[in-house]
Structure formats: C-alpha cells, structure tokens
Amino acid sequence: MNRDGQRIRLALVIVALALSAGSGCATMRFRAADPYHRPCAEAFAYTDDGWKLGIRRVRPVCPDPGKLPVVLCHGLGLNGTFWTITDGHLPEQLAARGYDVFICDMRGSGASQKVGPVGKLNSLLRQTPFLEVGDGHWTVDDQALHDVPAILGFIKKETGRDRVNWVGHSLGGMLMFSYLERSRESWRIANFVAMGSTVAQSEFPQTQMLNANRGLRMLLRVMSTGRIARPLMWYRPSGLAKIDGFYYTAENVDSRTIDRFYGYTLENPGRGALRQMDPYLEFGHFLSSDGKYNYVQNLHRIGAPLLMIAGEADVMSNIASTQLTFDATGSPDKTLLRFGRRNGHADDYGHCDLVWSRYAAVEVFPAIIEWLDRRQPGVTTIWPVRPVPSRKE
Fold it and tell me: pTM of this prediction?
C-alpha cells in the first residue's frame, strides 16, 4: 500500500474511533432547528479545480426583474450562516426588496468539500476534532480565482443573469478585490459592497493579529480549532474576551448570536490562507500567495461601483486602513460609510458587529440596500427601506 493509501486507512480508523466516541460536531449543525443555521447544502457550485461549494438561495416573494442577484460571501474561518444567525438578517431584508439572494459556503467551510474520495473522507472527519486531509493547502487566491467564477457560473445557470451584486464581509470582500483586479470577467460584478474589508494596513506590523495568526497556524497542525471550539456555544470562560474582541463588541451583540457563532458559524481558517495573511499583517500590503502580485498597488484597476462599510471600533479593518484602500481604488463611483457614535449611530461597530449587532438591521442593512437599489439596471423608483421585523423564536 502506498503512503497515501496508508494515510487514508489510518484516517478512517481514527474517524471510526472518534465517531464511536459520539462527538457529532457536524451532524449537530445539519440537525439545527432553524434551517438558516444549517450548512448551505441546498445546491452546489463546482469549481474548475475540483471543489463543490454549498449554496443557499433565499428567493423573494415578489421578485423585482429590474434587480440583479445578490451574492453574500463570508470571511475567513466562518461559513455562510454568518449572514443568518441574527433576527431580521440581511438576506431576509434583501429578499423583501425583491432581490434573489445566494449565500455561499466557500472552500473549507460549511458543506463545501473536495470532489471524490478525499471529500467523502473529509465529510466524516468534520464530525471529529481531527484535521481534514489537505486542510491547509488552499489559499485566498484559490477562492478568488476558482470559487468566485464557480459561483457566478451557478447563478448564471439558475437565473440567466450574467452579472451580480457582490456583498463580502472581511475576507469575503478581500477576495473580491483580488478577483476584480485579476479576472478577465470582472465586468460580471455589477456592484461591490465591502464590509470590514481592506487590503492595506495603515500601521504595521499588526503585532497582536500577527501573533494570533501564527499561533492559530501552529494549532491547526494538530487539531481542528473550529470544531473543538463548538462547546463554547454552551459555556464560555471569561478569558476569551480578548480573543472575541477581534470578532465583535460584546456590548453590541446579543448573547444568543454569539452562541450561534460558536455552534454553527465558526470553521477552521485553513493554514494556506492564514499563511497568505502573514505579509499583510507584517508589512501592510495584501499579496498573492506566491508573493508576486501586490493587490494594493493594483487597486486602480478596479472600476466596479464600490461601497465600503467600516466600523469605528473594528480592530481587524480599522478606519484608517479602510480609507487607504478606498482612496486607492479606481472606481469612479465609490462610497465610504462609517458606522459609529460620531456619525449618529447607536454604538461604535466592531468587525462582525456590521452584520451581527442588534442595531445592524436598522442602521447598516437599510443603507446597503438603498445604495444597491440606486445602481440596479431596471430600477426607476427608490423607496425608503423598512427593516424586516425580527422572526419570533
């Protein structure tokens, strides 16, 4: 038996032992009472390098033919449920305005997996604390240059639309900067909303985030950090506050949203993607995984209408870094919105607060939808956006 065969056989033995111990991490997600908390597995988009990406579609009750589909793309170490673990969430508000919404699980997250035997093995490993085969091999470039075209192709097949509105949070926006700079089909992104997404750092090195990034890469050599953290859905020691502060501001986010984050949304970031983030955090510019392409130096190539959303308390993508990225883009139609007390909002927004805050449904989402409405090809009248009422638990 060759080395790969021995590794797969050993992994299968480990899986059997772990399953017999009853970890059930992944199956808990598929059995979630609210369908919006389950992995995006209603359909799959297939990439040209052998991945299938989970898709969830939120159809409008009254479709508006003048509006293009919306893609919602999560960030690193998260999955598509990032957008749907709060009440009155953005997908519901978009659908209420007539948009056809597509939420994706990018590679390495949710229901997405490699096609073939390795993918089937990994689907079992996701029910254990053990690492998946090839867990650290993919990069942000792979997501931008393979995942994005697959998603666009899937939407074209489903709707007949060549172009979409892309809304990305954190890395879900960073990879779109990459796509718009390097793809020959950048025209397919009609409008781009980047939430907490930057490719330039105003100050560097970002020592705290850099150390956290490298520490996480070391942990990911031996265990699944995303799956071992799922019990935090039920109990969180006080010492986590500093780490959690990178993600959200505790005062702005309901505790049940945080519970759902740990239970349903948190994933392994992927060592390859984390490795690509190192130079960005150390030297201030986001680079391709081989270090040969500088995304900051080529921001002038971006021409799509751009809305950048920034939180005044965001420590991952701070205001100064957002402004640097915004100023360098070549789009003739670009808008920067800052969310915090100084601009009349309820509170200063942190990184994930832009989507998870109890105030986001009434302050952030309507602003995004009104900006999109004004740029749709068939819209003639713009009406004020009324937030969707929260669903009853």
Answer: 0.91
